[in-house]
Known about the structure:
The longest helix is centred in the last third of the chain and has 13 residues, at about 70-80. By secondary structure, this protein is of the alpha+beta class. Helix 2 crosses helix 3 (about 70-80). The strands form 2 sheets. Strands 2-1-5 form a 3-stranded antiparallel beta sheet. A two-stranded antiparallel sheet has the order 3-4. It contains 3 helices and 5 strands; from the N terminus they run ααβββββα.
Amino acid sequence: AIDGFNAATRLQIAAPDAFRLLTTMPVTFRYADPDAILEHFGPLIELRSDGQLHRVRFHNRSDQVAVANPDSLSRYYAARACSPKRAHVRSSSPTQARPRAHRSAG
């Protein structure tokens, strides 16, 4: 599994300019099947008003970057490519429960 919060935090440290771009450039995420159409418009990495991580979206088959000048698109795709979100990491997501260690009696 990919831990988006961990990956976004690592990206913010390793490549702050790429992080900033992925928090500000809007992307349309769209999924459609015969029963539903799901759409959302926003940045790949969404921050709360206090600057803390709020949401990380990544689905390279459903995101559509808005028409922009070639330089902006190049910078966006470069930022996306350098993102450590592609790395598989174990849980540190604030929304994912962590297993508790069990001790045997004895």
